[in-house]
Amino acid sequence: MDEQKRVFWDTMKLFKEIGLLPHVLLIGSWVEYVYEFAYYKDYYSNLRTRDLDFLVKNINRPSNPIDIKQALTNNGYIMDVDSLTGTTKFFKENLLELEFLVMEKGRGQSEPYLIKPLNIRAEGLRHLDILLNNTTQVSIDEYGMMLQIPLPQAYLLHKIIISDKRSDFKREKDLRSILNILEYMKQYPQELHTLSYIYQNRLLKSEQAKVFKYCNEYNIDLGFDLSRVNNNILIKDAVKRNFEMER
What we know:
It is built from 9 helices and 9 strands. The strands form 2 sheets. Strands 1, 2, 3, 4, 5, 6 and 7 form a 7-stranded mixed beta sheet that branches. Strands 8-9 form a two-stranded antiparallel sheet. The chain is of the alpha+beta class and 247 residues long. The protein has 2 domains: 1-150, Beta Polymerase, domain 2 (2-Layer Sandwich); 152-247, no CATH class.
């Protein structure tokens, strides 16, 4: 195991020891490594990043405060407050850059969100509910822990939906990840069925439109007919509008 992955697992063990794991969801590209390690058989991730991101599920939890700053600095991380965003970040040498994120709701806010139980400030981002509402737990027997991660289908769709907000470099990297996961899914009909279900039932119409546009642009086949799904949505909307007008 290389040094970066060793530090990753050391961080996960630390989070378990201080009671943080139940309150965060691992997101970002390190999820792909967990898919490889404990979720998909014979799957190989395309991991090439220092960014280690966690979604805080509820900014008011846990009820008992956790001194995450002290815990991480005691384990070799250096804390920094981003001069542009005001968010709290942690760096482990040149191996990992750890950041906590929260869901942006409603009209949002320009300032970072204060997570009082952790005494840190985190950036709020849109569309993270896709990941939080479609999760699974994986048992990491080797380290005696349970990790909460997004379902691969939700992870893939989220990558697509936020693509237009990413830099060219990250957009190209995301495309490789999307194609890599999708290639594996296509070996198993149930995986594609779950992908179709989340697309049809767990996304906003605006998010579905982003997926439709992205797949057309990059000629990606998700394993089901996106145009048919979108046409069905348009028909249902038209029927609903006509019904409301008649009333």
